[in-house]
Amino acid sequence: MSAYALTDSWTMTRRALAHWARQPGRLLVGLVFPVMLLLMFAYLIGGGRGVTGQYRDYLVPGMLALTMAFGLEGTMLAVTRDLEKGVIDRFRSLPMANGAVLVGRSAADMLQSALGLVILTGVGYALGWRVHGSPAQFLGAVGLLLLLRFAMLWIGIHLAMVAGKPELVQAVQILVWPVGFLSNALAAPQSMPDWLGTVVEWNPMSQTATAVRDLLGGPGGEPGHVWAAVVWPLGLLAVFFPSAVRRFARLSS
Predict the structure, then answer these.
(1) How many helices (H) and strands (E) does the chain have?
(2) Are 64 and 120 spatial neighbours (Cβ–Cβ below 8 Å)?
(3) Phi, psi dihedrals of residue 81, rounded to the nearest 5°
(4) How many structural domains are present in the chain?
(5) Which residues of 153-171 are buried (b: 16+ CB within 10 A; e: fewer)?
(6) Residue 17, Cβ density class (10 Å: 0-12 exposed, 13-18 middle, ≥19 buried)
(7) For the whole model, what pTM was predicted?
(8) 64: closest CA among 154, 146, 173, 152?
(9) What is the rounded CA–CA span in Å between residue 14 and residue 17?
(10) Which H helix or E strand runs over 28?
(11) By residue range, what is the domain housing residue 14?
């Protein structure tokens, strides 16, 4: 990416951050919601099906991976609102790098995701969860989580470009929940029917959760899943990143 494109993307990132400064409520909801889910499963409905050892040591890495899929509606709503109000058309009339609006949007949301990981990790520590891996392994786990989040954001951006209207975002959002929970974030696949366990194990979020558990030394971690936790998000990015940029480029035609 050229310096010109980076400058334009940073300008769009600052625009998104300015919106959050004027409307902090949306940012707070996005940060608090994963914490509420973690507390709910840790204290109310967490059963630890098929999990050996401390369930919270299994739950927290799973929730970190699960929340990388949630919150996409915020990204999608922001993109579709700009489309509906003609804001993107005005940006396209300016001498800007193609796709800078989308890259800036994803960069701002990645900053929010990183902040969310810090908060959720802190809450996990307050619940008694501990990292048993080395600092390098911890940073590797964070990198895998953010890589998954980046891929999921571009899926959301692509779907927003397809939907085009904020009213259609809710229909897409409904699909995120079953895909998110159809993973090993909350329960081990071994406790599920064979066919369901197979589907769960192939879920990209399950690959990331398993790799993170392995790096952090918690129950449910299995060696050899780090490569899958890298390949899956990169594969999704290879499909949805260029698709979103191409659809953005065709908006005026």
Answers:
(1) 11, 0
(2) yes
(3) -65, -40
(4) 1
(5) bbbbbbbbbebeebeebee
(6) middle
(7) 0.87
(8) 146
(9) 5
(10) helix 24-43
(11) 3-249
